TrEMBL record:
Protein name: Neuraminidase (Sialidase)
SUPFAM superfamilies named among the record's database cross-references: Sialidases
Family matches, as Gene3D superfamilies: 2.120.10.10
Organism this protein belongs to: Paenibacillus lutimineralis
Superkingdom to which the source organism belongs: Bacteria
Domain Sialidase per the UniProt entry, residue ranges: 31-316
Cross-referenced InterPro entries: Sialidase, Sialidase_sf
CDD domains: Sialidase_non-viral
Length: 339
């Protein structure tokens, strides 16, 4: 069970962009919050940049632009807390998803200022590092960045770093065996996604957790009506083929976090239609490492788009942000109540 502590919209009416999406968040060493997202005239437009807002004492600061391309869009920012108190920001840049470059910046002052951008894996195209969800540090210190590629057949992979992000090695692709794209052009949707994504099929945008040392798992967004899963027995080097879970999925982003006691908390749209409505948005809980799930909280249930959640945990608290009708970013905080 959860007790709600905060339910807020980050922005007021005076924002300087028309559309915002794909948020991420971090708890700062001071206990304050930081949220990031991409925003511009529309998804994929050349003016789409990375924006940021901080929360202190229950109030969010005026959003500021912290990264932008030169006549090409930015996408999918991801924050990571580093051991020394620094913040690492990953984000994508490029018009074509299959040719994305992954850039990163570092902040030493809780997001007030940022370093110049550097390329995560110089020369690599298609999106290295985290594609949308958080990097997980395994018990042996390995970083696992949940990643994916979109070029017709969608596949996921784990990008691994054993030197705190200096170098990266990707796993083999993780896909759905025997997937067929022959009927994908029959799909209809009102969701304002990039047309590049609309005709893809498979699994993308994974979210990762470690259940025991070297036992790593991922849940993936899919085009097949259900969240899919893959498992690794060797710290993310090798993975099983993707297989469906019992949780419906509308081919929209989701995120999962493992709490200290092993409980998994999943935020998703439990709608089993490819490119289906991005409402309701719920929290689901699993006490058996993701084999079964129970719906705990309905975050949003009215008509609209409530999507692309990012969820993190600290002690017995969970924090999340998500897209609110493409015009704002919502922030929620809950504490867990022991039964």
């Amino acid at each position: 069970m959860f007790n709600e502590i905060a339910n807020e919209l980050i922005m007021g009416m005076d924002k300087s962009f028309a559309s915002c999406h794909a948020s991420h968040l971090a708890v700062l060493p001071s206990g304050d919050m930081l949220a990031v997202w991409f925003a511009g005239s529309k998804e994929g437009a050349d003016d789409s940049a990375i924006w940021c807002s901080g929360r202190t004492g229950g109030n969010w600061s005026q959003p500021v632009k912290i990264a932008a391309g030169v006549e090409e869009p930015c996408w999918n920012p991801v924050l990571m807390n580093l051991p020394g108190g620094e913040l690492l920001l990953f984000y994508k840049i490029g018009r074509l998803i299959k040719e994305w470059r992954t850039l990163y910046k570092i902040s030493k002052d809780e997001g007030r200022t940022w370093s110049e951008a550097s390329e995560l894996v110089p020369g690599d195209r298609g999106g290295r590092g985290p594609v949308r969800n958080k990097v997980v540090v395994l018990s042996d210190g390995t970083w696992i960045a949940p990643a994916s590629a979109e070029d017709g057949i969608w596949t996921s992979f784990a990008d691994r770093s054993q030197d705190q992000g200096l170098t990266w090695r990707r796993s083999e692709d993780i896909g759905i065996a025997g997937i067929d794209r022959s009927d994908i052009h029959a799909v209809k949707s009102e969701i304002p996604v990039s047309e590049q994504s609309f005709y893809g099929r498979g699994v993308i945008q994974p979210s990762v957790w470690e259940s025991q040392p070297c036992q790593v798992h991922m849940l993936m967004r899919s085009s097949e009506g259900f969240i899919h899963r893959s498992d690794s027995q060797d710290g993310g080097v090798h993975w099983s083929a993707a297989y469906p879970t019992i949780v419906p999925n509308n081919n929209s982003g989701m995120d999962v976090v493992r709490m200290d006691d092993g409980t998994l908390v999943l935020c998703c749209n439990p709608v089993g239609t490819n490119w289906g409505p991005r409402t309701p948005l719920v929290l689901m809980v699993s006490s058996d490492n993701g084999l079964t799930w129970v719906e705990e909280v309905v975050l949003e249930e009215e008509e609209g788009e409530f999507s692309y959640p990012a969820i993190i945990a600290r002690d017995d608290h969970i924090y999340l942000t998500y897209t609110w009708n493409r015009v704002n970013i919502a922030f929620r905080e809950f504490s867990r109540i022991s039964k």
